[in-house]
Amino acid sequence: MAGAILIAGACEWAPSLRRAMPVEAHIARPDPFDDDAYFAEWAGANPGVDLRMHRYEGGGHYFLDPALPDYHAESARLCRERMLSFLNTL
Asked: What's the predicted TM-score (pTM) here?
């Protein structure tokens, strides 16, 4: 896999990512599940991964889902734009 996108957190397989792999994380701020300490710990467990954090103000944990109260239209738009740009670099 050329890169990874983490949305609203990391998953169980994420610690097996290779060194220098580009990884983007798209996380609400504040997020009750995935705060800055969570990703600092995750990055410490994945030395060498090229982690790029994107935090989004104004929405909740599920800020991308228009069917949920956490949805935030501007954050969702910006997140989609950033993800497409990231994918175009791989």
From this structure: 0.87
